[in-house]
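Our preliminary data section would be incomplete without showing what the modeling component actually yields. Below, a chain of 81 amino acids is followed by its predicted structure, encoded as tokens that our downstream tools consume directly.
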Amino acid sequence: MGDTARAESDYTQALTLKPDVLVYHNRALARQAQKQWQAALEDYDAALALQPQSAEVIKDRGNLLRRMQQEGLVPPVLGRN
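Predicted structure:
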């Protein structure tokens, strides 16, 4: 098991004990590193549900969406190419 896969597993286990914005954020980063785009996006959304003003989560979620757009997984933002 790779480091990011192990980290994802550890974060998942931690979340069974208590939902936490930092744990969701870190699991999203681990999933993103494994190219699990949709799962990472769901974790960013869960983190923002707990702490909507988290600038770091908002930034990383935006970076993920840009990456997903480059991969053709989401449509381009309206008015941008």
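Helices lie at 3-17, 21-33, 37-50, 55-70. The chain has a mean pLDDT of 90. Preliminary results of this kind motivate Aim 1 of the renewal.
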